[in-house]
Amino acid sequence: MQFKKLLTVLALAAGATLSAAAGAKEMRLGLIVPATHEWTKAANAMGEELKQKSNGKYSVTTFPAGQLGNEAQMMQQLQTGALDMAFMTVAEVTNRVPDMSALFAPFLVKSPHEAEVLLNGPTAQKMLQSLPREIGAVGLGYGVAAMRVMLNAFPTNSGADLKGRKMRITPFPPVRDFYQLLGAASTPMPLTDVYDSLANGQVDGVDADLELVWRMKFYERGNTLVHSNHMMFPVVGLISGRLWQQLPPADRELIAATARKHLNSLFTTYATVEGEMLKNIEGTKKVKVVKAGPEFFGDVPKKWEEIWMKRTPILADLRKEAAAIK
Ligand code: BEZ
Fold first, then answer.
1. 15-46 pLDDT, tens per residue?
2. Site residues for ligand 1, CB cut-off 6 Å
3. Nearest atom (ligand 1) to Cα of 206
4. How far is Cα 323 from Cα 311, in angstroms, rounded to an integer?
């Protein structure tokens, strides 16, 4: 009897959620980047298009700057259904899907355009398909941030100058290994703490990108911009698996296509924004811009490759696909 009652309650609850999904549904989308960041702009544009195309059935409210918690917390909320969507760093997802670490191989791609081809290619797309099983959220598509550079408060003429320096990193193994191989003391730190930490000497430099260096004014606290483009930094659009299961197939298609379009728009955005930000930073005359390719870092990229080819052999497929990009 009690079991029957429980089944009835569960059925009613499921019905209530389903009917909410069948009516107007405001989806909450979390991001750790600020409201002015290109990822947030893309999420807002996606929400507007979705609202228009669904005749108001779906809308998206964005919560930037980690208002809903850090990415680990947002991941949990997606799994329980407390959060509907997120534009999340692939860095965070590597904690659950270690193969995705291969996307951070040094000098795997040279530009946002090459990132677009690789991330929409077979190996990266296969990883995306595995997300419902691995993390309980559906991957809607990839975008990127600007390519990674370093902003340092010390003269940097080669990778050897990083030895013994405290470098802010996004805390996850592929980047940690890169800096460890360079002999730097990698210091995990959220973006919001970087400006002050550069000012007070808690870190000597940061692994970041041109958008962050310009918009978060890190250039005010450094003297050398190492323009290395040493890694790409993908973002993935996620929707809660729980919500997804309740959506009719046509609505899923609409949401997936709209999300993918706006995530993919970031590849073009950064192809333009990177140049603008570099000009802006150069215009301040506050930092010396040092152009750096793989050779700048000596044998570190090769050593990184040896370690990670064993850990994530899927890297070999990515290298092949990357080599074929025109
Ligand atoms: C970072 O941790 O450096 C980062 C996070 C989100 C977007 C771009 C960069």
1. 334 444 457 999 999 999 999 999 999 999 99
2. 32-33, 89, 145, 170, 191, 208, 212, 233
3. 3
4. 21
